[in-house]
Design a protein that fits this description.
The chain has 12 helices and 2 strands, in the order αββααααααααααα. By secondary structure, the protein is mainly α. The protein has a two-stranded antiparallel ribbon with strand order 1-2. The longest helix has 20 residues.
């Protein structure tokens, strides 16, 4: 009997060890040179579960470009005024489906006076239109020809499922023990690892250097500390979880810092980090005072974007579904800030003070990623 108990205990221990492994069958995709072990492992069961959350809606029937312009017929149209009335109404219907299918037009508009800007949601939506146009026109280095629409982030919900706020410092963060930066307090933002649980503030709001591996021997090379490496690894954990991939999506793990041995998605990711940072600084932060208090974070900051906001577990948002091509009005260059006019939030003195306190940019030009 004792032997049976030992065998059962041993079997339970083995099962426990294997619980963290992917049970077969699994799919593998080669991401790098043969022989380097750069393979992604996909669980078809997990992918099947995610597929339902990454279905692009059927595009609305195209509208006629003929007839008077929306800006000539409707009052207070600032972003889409050059569309025909039919095209404008099609875009409004699509946005309703993408963002607020339950509330309809009333989510953004005073239905007694559609020209009224009293609802904050209308002011925000107008600015988000410009942001979408900016992504599609200025950040093709990340979104390519696929582009984005409101649905890419919202998926039929007024607030995207994945946004982030700056966490409050815990009590005693500034005492003799110092600020633990969220370490040993596992958070979903870093895959439940005991790493700093806010990798977004230094990299997607500030511009701290992400590289921690030196390219030369010390003392001439990189002198980043172990603590800085933990912040970088926390960001990488976030990116891995957000895209549903592992390190080999971008890196040759024999030499994580080597661009020569990296796969093409690393360049795409490099631009994506900088895109997220620009969107947060130029579009989200200036809207802080536009949102009501109940829509702000615990520290009073506005919701911001990260990799998960668009990707939501897929290596390409919506698995690469090309929605934007059905909405050419979202592909055009964003209008200059000077013509954005009233109703669009601008940086306040407090915003500028906060931004000036951020670290100096550690980015590199697109031609020399690092």
């Amino acid at each position: 009997m004792k032997r049976i108990h030992v065998m059962v205990a041993g079997l339970a221990a083995i099962c426990g060890l294997l619980a963290g492994c992917e049970r077969p069958p699994v799919d593998t995709v080669q991401r790098g040179y043969r022989g380097t072990g750069m393979e992604l492992v996909y669980n078809p069961r997990t992918q099947a579960e995610q597929a339902a959350n990454n279905q692009a809606p059927v595009p609305l029937e195209a509208a006629s470009p003929d007839g008077p312009r929306a800006g000539q017929v409707y009052q207070n149209v600032k972003v889409l005024k050059d569309l025909s009335v039919a095209e404008f109404n099609r875009t409004m219907a699509a946005m309703t489906n993408w963002v607020a299918p339950k509330n309809g037009c009333a989510h953004c508009h005073n239905v007694a006076n559609f020209a009224d800007d009293s609802l904050y949601t209308k002011v925000v939506a107008r600015r988000m239109l410009v942001m979408t146009q900016t992504i599609n026109s200025d950040w093709k280095s990340h979104v390519a020809k696929t582009g984005v629409t409101c649905f890419t982030c919202h998926r039929g919900e007024p607030v995207p499922k994945e946004v982030w706020f700056q966490p409050l410092l815990p009590k005693g963060a500034n005492d003799f023990a110092g600020n633990k930066a969220g370490q040993n307090a596992p958070a979903a933002s870093v895959g439940l690892a005991s790493l700093p649980n806010d990798p977004f503030t230094p990299f997607l709001l500030g511009a701290e250097s992400i590289r921690v591996a030196g390219t030369q021997a010390l003392p001439a090379g990189n002198r980043q500390s172990i603590k800085q490496a933990e912040w970088t690894y926390a960001l990488m954990m976030h990116m891995s979880k957000s895209l549903g991939v592992n390190c080999t999506q971008c890196h040759n793990t024999r030499s994580l810092g080597s661009w020569e041995n990296s796969s093409p998605p690393r360049v795409t990711a490099w631009h994506g980090i900088r895109m997220a940072r620009e969107l947060n600084l130029e579009f989200m932060v200036p809207l802080t005072t536009t949102f009501p208090a109940n829509r702000l974070g615990p520290g009073g900051d506005v919701a911001k974007v990260n990799c998960a906001t668009c990707h939501q577990g897929a290596h390409k948002p919506l698995y690469g579904a090309e929605m934007a091509k059905y909405h050419p009005e979202l592909l055009v260059k964003a209008m200059p800030a000077a013509t954005a006019a009233s109703g669009v939030a601008t940086l306040t003195a407090d915003d500028m003070k906060a931004l000036e306190a951020l670290p100096a940019s550690g980015g590199k030009p697109a031609a020399a990623p690092g």
